[in-house]
Amino acid sequence: MKSALAKTILATTAGLLMTGTALAQTATATATTDLNIRSGPGPQFEAIGVIGSGETATVTGCVTDSMWCEIDFNGTVGFAYSDYLTVESQTAGEVVVLTERPPELVGVVEPDTTANSTVTGAAGGAIAGALIGGPVGAAIGAGVGATAGVVVDPPEEAVTYVQSNPVDPIYLEGEVVVGAQVPETVTVQTIPDYEYSYAYINGQPVLVAPDTREIVYIVR
Question: Looking at the 3D structure of the chain, how many domains does it have?
């Protein structure tokens, strides 16, 4: 009888410890820019939502050897690029970019991206390069959005032109955010009577400053 009771207590204690560990491996992250939530861990997956600059989401885990982490933002569950999320590290005693988190801060997720899983929506096409920069670590010291670069409010005519004249999408490692630079290998298109060019990157039309190659607006 005592042996059975002891086993029950041990099993209950172990369950509580496991629950505590699982809870400890989530974290609250803050977006340093308007950041896409995608249906899977990669730029080819569909954007299913946006975390606004300065808003917070729960990080439930990150993919091994990847910059993509699973998040829950007001009930929308998907994946976000860790370079544009910051978290408070109790170990380091400071705010850090999620990419540079201590390994014990959040758990690991291994998403099932097979056709029968819920992680679907990936477009075809190979990764053709990488986006450069964006509001990463500097935002910690300078304030959220402080490193976002030029932000424009395009006229409706320009947005309509971009949407009415789609081009073949290019997929680049990283995430489309204002301030990120488009590599020279990507051809940008002109917009009549407008100073900015455009391209379709990672499934989304973006406006690009032709001189700096910086993304200045994302058409959502």
Answer: 2
